[in-house]
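User: Predict the structure for this protein chain, please.
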Amino acid sequence: MIDQMFLQIAKLEGRGVPTRVAIALFLLYNVFILTIAITSIRSVFGARKPHDGTIKEPPIAPYSVPFLGNLYAFASNTKSCLSSLRSKFGIEIPVRLRIGNRKIVAISGPESMQSLFRSSKDLTTAPSVIMVLENSFAVPKSIRALYERDNTGLFGTPIAGSNPIPQKDRYWYIGHKIFHCGLQGQALEGLASRFMENLEEGLKELDIGEDWVPMDDLYELVRQAVFKASTTSLFGPHLFRLNPDLGKIFWEFDDNIVNLFKGVPRWLIPKSYRVRDQFVQAIRKWHDYAEGNINLEEDSSVPWEEYYGAKVMRDRARELSAIDGMSAEGLAGEDAGMLWAANANIIPAIGWCILDTLMRPSLFAQVKAEIQKSLSDDNKLDRNALMNSPLIQSLWSEELRLRGSVAIQRTPITPMFKIGKWAIPKGALILGSSWHEQHEKSVWNEGPTVRDPNHHPVDELWPERFLVYPDDHLSGPRKSETRNENSTTPSSNDDLKDVEPKFTSQPVNGSFIPFGGGQRACPGRFYAKYEAIGGMALFLNMFDVELENNRTEDVKMNWKYFAFGVVPPLGKFPGRIRRRKG
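Assistant: Here is the predicted structure, written as structure tokens:
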């Protein structure tokens, strides 16, 4: 072995490498080899499932670089890194990752995800939320204490043993309460109606007549129209009036958010920070104007007014500003985050619904028929009829399944959190990937069915994936082997045509998780559904569109946004457009 060492050093010296450098390189190489060998052995033994009721730590993912661990693989291509873990360890086995000095445990499989969601009281999202607010939305680090001191939970009664802080300073409870009240029930109905009114008005104002006109990019047209309608519905008209270039600013910020989120230093990405500061300053300008024109303590029951927009935004302004330690800069960052969360996911989702429908003639005919059935005598869309359409619901869910990529993050607040027979230490970051769960071949139905002889891979759009036919035991979102197969098979094609399907996502609970789950599921998920289905129907009912390229295989996703929500389409979608007559 010693002889081999000197031989390798001599070879390096023969190539002109100085002796000291050659020795250092040889030693470094052997450190890497030794590290990968040790971590691989530990990984193999650690991956053996616990037995006899014992609880053990998850296995580690092998790595070769001490101290850095899996940092490069995880940071450079998170999607590939998580796919590799599933391939190596299988699903339902959590895996420990070393990302520098951070402890991350990647979990997978529907049972693990549901276990995570059922244990919300033992988990927190605070560390992840604080990091996003500070890195991406410029919330000052000086107010971090108000987030960290609140360990009282999400509900009215504080968690036993938590810090004794005043009710008005319970940040996490306040946010949960405001969203629960402001994005459900009558408030949701009012917000959805206002969005549809704003979008219809905005689409009517477009310079598009009944004759065909060229269109540079359909997605960009949809993106700007929906952004203005959605933002005005939530924030009121003055945010746009005070910042006429808000659409440009927002999407430029969105284009830079990935590096901001990662905490890349300002001197390396000065443009990203400049755009972020411009975006947050636009919110600050709106705050100053709204505060000067309305008393937050008056008319608190009004569902919408022009200065703060929807009641949910006014309630946020009133209650967050009253928290001890909150600042104007913090409030601006909070609402910048709110604006991004309200648009950055739903708009790509609406865009995909429209694009995928237009590129598939048979689907387009089906969707148009559903829209036609929902129209009243005065050509108005019945939103509830659309929301209850099995096909439209299935299409919406399939877009979320295929295009959605959410990083589900939780941190245990109990000494030893358990998922199955695996123990995860307090303070570790638990990470789940909605994209991987929603593309798991062992779970999802890929066909064929009694009605449809075709194969539908999980990485392709199948608009009917979430439809269950009572006479087709092979239908539905989950693989047939795991479903009840006692239903009868239709005896003829006539039988097949007359049976109405039902929409369901229940068989894939824990695998279909576009909005997370548990007590911390995305509070805007119901509003997002209204926006997506209503927005798609309104656009397709008002315009005829022909795309230059209808080849679905040419459509790409912008994987830069992996783990940031719905992954948007990549590139432009040119064609021509005209307003429908009548």
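The first strand starts at residue 95 and ends at 99.
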